[in-house]
Amino acid sequence: MQLIDKLKQQARQLKSEAQVLILAYSDKRTPLSAKIIIGLTVGYLLSPIDLIPDFIPVIGYLDDLLIVPLLITLSIKLIPSVVLTEARQSIKDNPKKIKKNNWIFAAIIISIWLALFYTAYRHFSYLWK
Predict the structure, then answer these.
(1) pTM to 2 decimals?
(2) With 51 labelled, which of 30, 40, 59, 117 sits at a CA distance of 20 to 30 A?
(3) Can you give the residue range of the structural domain that contains 49?
(4) Domains in the chain, number
(5) How far apart are CA 30 and CA 118, in angstroms?
(6) Are residues 68 and 122 in the same domain?
């Protein structure tokens, strides 16, 4: 149980880096590859849909314990250190809140999920006939 608590704490610390990622995304010095990963990371963090729903026992929290920290860590490694340092300092000097109720963003994420489900259905529909 102590390992799970430790992993949850580390995940919370990495999630606090989301604001830093948002600032780094808007910086012109951030490379395109980093911006793509940051977009996926922040999109997944703010998405109302989890890859693995939390109501599934044990594995429901895998995305919170593994996927999210992995995406955040990868994003941070792709950001130039100067940009990362400046973004962290900016957050420290002027803390901002990530808006959780961004319905436009949620609609985009839901649309992407629906498109993926539709594509999978079309691709595998022959199995049900």
Answers:
(1) 0.63
(2) 30
(3) 2-98
(4) 2
(5) 34
(6) no
- Number of Cβ within 10 Å of residue 38's Cβ equals 25
Helices (H), the chain: 2-15, 18-26, 32-46, 62, 68-78, 81-93, 103-124
In terms of Cβ atoms closer than 10 Å to its own Cβ (0-12, 13-18, 19+), residue 114 is: exposed
Q: Is 66 in the same domain as 112?
A: no
- Calculate mean pLDDT across residues 34-54: 77
Does the pLDDT value for residue 101 go beyond 60?
A: no
The total number of residues written for the chain in this structure:
129
Q: Any residues with CB less than 8 A from the CB of 21 and at least 6 apart, and which?
A: 38, 41, 42, 72, 75, 76, 79, 87
User: Do both 129 and 87 map to the same domain?
Assistant: no
pLDDT score of 81 more than 90: yes
- Say whether both 49 and 87 belong to one domain: yes
Judged by phi (left if over 0) then psi (alpha if -120 to 50, else beta), residue 58 lies in left
CA gyration radius, the chain: 17
**72 and 90 share one domain:** yes
Q: What is the pLDDT of residue 33?
A: 92
